[in-house]
TrEMBL record:
This is Mitochondrial 37S ribosomal protein. It comes from Starmerella bacillaris (Yeast). Keywords: Iron, Iron-sulfur, Metal-binding, Mitochondrion, Ribonucleoprotein, Ribosomal protein, Transit peptide. Mitochondrial ribosome (mitoribosome) assembly factor. Binds at the interface of the head and body domains of the mitochondrial small ribosomal subunit (mt-SSU), occluding the mRNA channel and preventing compaction of the head domain towards the body. Probable inactive methyltransferase: retains the characteristic folding and ability to bind S-adenosyl-L-methionine, but it probably lost its methyltransferase activity. Pfam families: Rsm22 (PF09243). The keyword Transmembrane helix does not apply. The keyword Hydrolase does not apply. Its main location: mitochondrion. One of its GO terms (molecular function) is iron-sulfur cluster binding. Coiled coil: none annotated.
Amino acid sequence: MNCTKSRLQSLRAPHVFGRLVTPNSSLKELSGSKTIDKFDPLTVIGKAPKPRQATLPHELATKIGEISWQWTPQELRQRVAAIYASLKEGTPHKATSDHLDVSANITGLFLQNYISLKTCLAEVHKRLTTSSDKKIKFQPKSVLDVGFGPGTGILVARELWPDIEYEKAVIYGDREMKKEAKRIIDNSEKVVFVDELPSDTSPQTFDLIICQHQLYTKGENPENKIAILSKKLGQLLNPGGVLLFAERGDPLGFESIASARRALLLSNINDSDSPVESSNEQTNHQSKKNNETPGDNVTVNTSIPLNNSDSSTNSNVNTVFKSVAPCNHDKPCPLSVGLSQRLSAKNPGKFNWCTFDQNIKRPKYTLELKRGQYLSQKWVPGMQQGTGGSVIKGNGRTGSNNYEIANFSWVSMQKELQSSNQEASLSSKWPRIMKDPMNRHNHATMEVCTDGKIQHWTVPKSQGKQCYHDIRRAQAMDLWPFDAKTKQDRGGVPEKFRLQ
């Protein structure tokens, strides 16, 4: 598409984290441009609603900070440090085991979990709800949150879709986590808190399902466990509904996401030929330990109150799953080699993987938590340069920075009826920018995922003033509406290693 094409005559104002953005707004989110008018209207459509720095709402930060008052700083920091060390070693996220574990989990992990989900769901919200070229708007009336935390998905979904009528949170782990969730979530009496997923025979279905840190697992055949959970959640989704998975942003978290996406896309071809033909046997196996990974903890509970959804919508006949974001295609992932292969590899990051990040301003409780010998980070020698190039060394927050970076991998899938003739939105096939573009002299390069391939695109200044302006202010997770002068197939996994 050429940059000189006429601009769209009318555009609905985009939203950034639930805040309406008007053409005259001052937007740091739009990467340095003072006004939105400087961008091509197509670029505005493709922009991810991802601010330069995200912040936790003050009221929510205050509630989280109050949790630390129950413990001495030393014992809380020691437990949080143990959780961080476990995750750094590649251990899957675990359900909480006691009251201190609950407090450490919330104070240490909630900030990044919340902002990661907010970044992902804000993109889904823009593509399906506020997009000016989407005829059928996604307006969920029921939501299911599955995770180890205090209903984090419920909090984010409420911000973006305030008209949700029915909310359910499946919280694995110690009962104290449910108590904290009821204190953190406003009007928590409207939320149904349970510790098990609805049964296979339950007529209860949802318009939006959020599943965070539930896929990645170790052991034999982890892909099969992921496929079982993915298909089970897919069965709980109404036609037109969205299923979102979010995991850590390392190679193992990415492969877990890719396995779930692959399982749902394979179910489109033939349900009986999907790789989860032994799901009944494994689903009936109920976990007895709270610290087991949820891939094994898919249990049955027939006492859960039912939603008002029609039971006929629970049927998966004539339904298909389609990728919403960040994938812009339904072809095999060009970066996936399989979770088993990544786990057995000496270096899981040998091949490229799909990950995004978000800069987060640390609230007061996080600044206080991460000071001292347990959670402070040693400065990298030479990282901070003093006057005249002298090296500054020290401990604590590097350079006194008050921010941290959340890395995450994610995918959102929409369940559609095969008979539906929904027109694809204008931006649904645009390539996704994988990493922040690199600005060079008179040109910019970027890595994009387009039509099942990873390519390196080069946009020179000669391609047009508008294109050149927009590409130099683009960022990772944006959709790119224009063409490129040169394209190279580079950055994907070689065909012989790729998982089809």
